[in-house]
Amino acid sequence: MATTKKRKKKRKKVVKFNNVIRMNFAVILFFIILIYVAASAFISMTKETISIYEVRESNINNNFNLTGVAIRKENVVKTHKSGYVCYFAREGEKVSSGYNVCAVDETGDVINSISIAGDDSYTLTDEDYTSIRDLISSYKMNYSNEEFYEIYSFKDTVLDKVYELSSSILNDTISNESATVRSTLEKISSSTSGIVLYSTDGYEDITLSSIKDSDFDKSNYVKNSLKTGDIISTGTPVFKLITDENWSVICQITADQAARLKNLEYLTFNLNGSEEMYVNNYEIETRGEQNYLIINLNKYMIEFISDRFLNVEVVLDRFEGLKVPNTSIVDKEVYTIQEKYITKDGNTNTLRTQSVDENGNIVTLNKNVKVYKEVDGIYYVDPEDLETTDVLVSTDGKDTIGVSLVQTGILKGVYIVNQGIADFNMIDILKDGDEFVIVSKESGLKEFDKIVMNSDKVTENQIVY
What CA–CA distance (Å, rounded) separates 137 from 132? Predict the structure, then answer.
């Protein structure tokens, strides 16, 4: 009985917590979290969006592209017989006077004898095989995907070798044929030295003074190419000789373009995307309402000998660098400090300063400062590294100047945010544009840097993300 009474007494000492108090605390915590989430959402919705731009290389130029017509001294050679034509020289090859360029096979016996005999009749020598193998090996050793265009040069080299072997075969065949067969051939030689071309286009007699507006219309242009085995009739052109390495390219230009080209010391241009060329032997002519640019040349002809129409890019101004939106550019006020106050040690720039501490004592410090650029002994220094109450001391200790009296200047720059913080970086603008500028790659900005696009929404050293 005594034990039962003791247990009852112990039970009476149990304290019960108020469930209402516990419930009220939970409700208050819930409302705090709800208010925080709502406030965060509101701030996020009303906060202005900061746009990021990735810097890329680009260029701005004032060049203009023209269509040019090549004018050369071209002598068309015709045949006095009809028949099959056989060529001995490569197109573009320079031949001497009296060189046998081709022959006209009146009966077709020579061509037929080659076809009937087949390939087995003409065995390549070890030297021929070695030459061809060397061509292929050289191409394979130097091949790269980045320079795939070199395959066209390789093709031309192989074709030259084929023409060389074909010429040898033709000459051997003609020599081995009977006198009767050889009597049906008309060998045609060059009357003078020159470069051989196996095509005609009706422009051979056009001169700089006789050219017409219709001659610039490429839609009507027809080029007739000739090759071994073609059947030609009497009086037909069989080849032509370029007899002079002096040639001209004539282009139609506007009055505005003519005005921009006049009085240049020299003309910079390229043909069909070639490397830039420079000449001072050029003319601007006006005939009626039409203006012409005439470029007179004494070299490069062999490179473009097969082209009548040329794409001419006249180079006036070309600015290559980094493309930056105008909206990214900000102005920063900096101190312009004379060289005599700056101590340089490698990439470190130091200013000797004096200031007064809270006890009234003069304190001398050497402060490392960020220098954006130096022009004619003036250093453009970040003001964040100095206090307006500082006094600058010259390196020889003879001169002092208060920072508040130092002149200021304005630098143009952008905010780089590669690390998520808006870091000011000075830029050197090479060329202005309506929406973008071209910036020098030497100013510290690099391709693929991330910069703030709407810089008016950001302050320096602000955490962007």
Answer: 9
CA 164 to chain centre: 38
Q: Look at residues 318, 72, 313 and name the one whose alpha carbon lies nearest to residue 208.
A: 72
Query: pLDDT at residue 118 above 60?
Result: no
- Matching residue, tokens 């009303």: 46
Encoding tokens for residue 455? 């810089």
176 three-state secondary structure: helix
* pLDDT tens, residue by residue, 150-193: 566 566 556 555 555 555 556 655 655 544 455 567 889 999 99
User: Residue 3 belongs to what H/E stretch?
Assistant: helix 2-12
- Helices 109-117 and 150-176 pack at an angle, to 10 degrees, of 110
Query: Which residues, at least 6 apart from 109, have a Cβ–Cβ distance to it below 8 Å?
Result: 177, 181, 184
Paired sense of beta strands 74-78 and 400-402, if any: unpaired
> What count of other Cβ atoms lies within 10 Å of the Cβ of residue 310?
18
- Tokens encoding 354: 């004096």
Helices (H), 98-216: 109-117, 126-142, 150-176, 179-182
Cα angle 410, 416, 421; round to 5: 110
Cα–Cα distance between 83 and 107 in angstroms, integer? 6
Q: Look-up: residue for tokens 């590669």? A: 418
User: Mind listing the pLDDT tens digit for each residue in 203-230?
Assistant: 999 999 999 999 999 888 888 888 777 8
